Amino acid sequence: MTTTQPPSQLPGFEVEPGSLNPLADARLAVELDTGDMILNMGPQHPATHGTLRLVVRLDGERVIAADPVIGYMHRGYEKLTEFRTYPQITTLINRIDWLSSFANEVPFIHAAEQLMGIEAPQRAQHIRTLLTELSRIATIYLFLGEMGLQVGALTPAFWGFRDREHVLNLIEGATGGRFHPNFNRIGGVKDDLPWGWIVECRAAMKRILDGCDDFEDVLVGNEIFQARTRGVGIIPAELGAAYGVSGANLRASGVDWDLRRDGKPYLSYNELDFKVWTHQDGDSFARYWVRLQETRESVRMVLQLLDGLASGPVMAKVPRIIKVPAGEVWVETENPLGQMGYYVVSKGAIGPFRVKIRSASFSNVSILPWLLRGLYVPDVVTVLGSLYFILGDIDR
Amino acid sequence: MGLVEKGVLSRKPLKPVTWLLNYSRKYSLWMFQWGLACCAIEMGAALASPRFDMMRLGVIPFPASPRQADLIVISGTVTDKMVPAIKRLYEQMPDPKYVISMGSCANCGGPYWDSYSVTKGVDQVIPVDIYIPGCPPRPEALLDAVVMLQERIQQEGLGNDELVARWRGEPVEVV
Description:
Chain A has helices spanning 20-32, 77-80, 86-93, 101-116, 122-150, 155-175, 197-220, 223-229, 237-243, 248-251, 259-262, 284-307, 360-365, 368-372, 377-387, 391-395; strands at 37-41, 53-59, 62-69, 184-185, 188-189, 327-335, 338-346, 354-358. By secondary structure, chain A is α+β, with helices and mostly antiparallel strands. In chain A, the strands form three sheets. In chain A, strands 1-2-3 form a three-stranded antiparallel β-sheet. A three-stranded antiparallel β-sheet of chain A has the order 6-7-8. Chain A has a two-stranded antiparallel ribbon with strand order 4-5. In chain A, helix 5 (122-150) packs antiparallel against helix 15. By secondary structure, chain B is α/β, with parallel strands linked by helices.
């Protein structure tokens, strides 16, 4: 078509002169109309903490639908536990949530102890609580650093990895394993704490507290960080609870719920004085803030435990070959990522008949399709980072 | 690759040229990190923590895509669902390419030796140059593996049949 002709004389466009402008608008709208774009994030993407695949449908830069595809890290835990004895399963379940391995062992060992009617000695309980809190610090510290990485600040990631090493050294010194301690036994823990460990632990806790102050100065007080995270990915409290979101993600939405305080008593948390932090906003910033305060609270707990560490044996009397009497038990604990529980069914053999694992991350990411709708693409990374899931914990 | 078939590398190059080429290659390894499971965190510690600092060995992490990478580190449990993606991204890497299999899971299945969904070793899918044992291996072990790989790259001859095969991406048996 040529431009010399007036638009009303174009073939197929016989319109009255007064209605020309709406038609031009319509044609413009048709020309500028964009189809939806499918963006595939993962399974290998640095922001997905492993192998989460996210299929995102975009309109321009806005997400109109997000679909998490999980299962790339499914290792069949619930089936494998049927072919292992109880001590062997401890080795295996270390690797469900690989950042907080020690915290994974505790609920399973508790379940077995409850079925057998064994109570671990008080010193063993204290050591367990110590190491659980240390693994919580190590886990959340990685988050505190990586969250900066997700919004474009590289330095906090280095700090997170640097200071985390001090905690890992402690775990290694006590258990022999940096990552997977496998330190719990049915009826107690494997060994007592080594000489000099408590002094080192105090020094490391001071470093951790200093590091928390650094994070607070550099990230929480940073305007750019606040602009990237405030108001992004808001989880309403009721909806979050309905989706099964737990842990710090739910506490950041204002729900005052912590299994260490509110659940069935386990370990020695009822002897400790600690505060459960909540935040009213429910956005990514609130999740960061709550976890930062939780790290400080964990340090407080560790120091309290070091002050009042009970003396005595670390193992109760258990038979050489562990056979768990028939029965069923459900044990849930507050893990660094949220509520983690094991439903153990025993038929009196050396291994369990069936183990159902409730892991926190699986429920935490189930809110992603709802949460990501309407966000911009860079905010997707922020939300993924702030939800803080571990793929092994999702897929098991 | 024209360089191999009819270029300077089709006949045996001079020794200093070989040395120089290998020297430059071994200190500019672009590493595509395939973080899968627990080992990925140890790999992250080796890369990002100031304590281990892998970049001082000439390894450059975070290439934008596998098409820019020389080295791939498979760190973690390889599941059957993941295998097609690993194969595809490995094929996208330009030759010569090297593979480090990190951790027991990537080596042989590790603690999931009887799992129904875990591939028993990534070497069933792609050829592996260096295996790192451990569950997970310490970051120092990964640094050691990189140094071993660099020694190996330095000793590779250019122009012989093995190298042509290596540059074409075929697995080479090293005695």
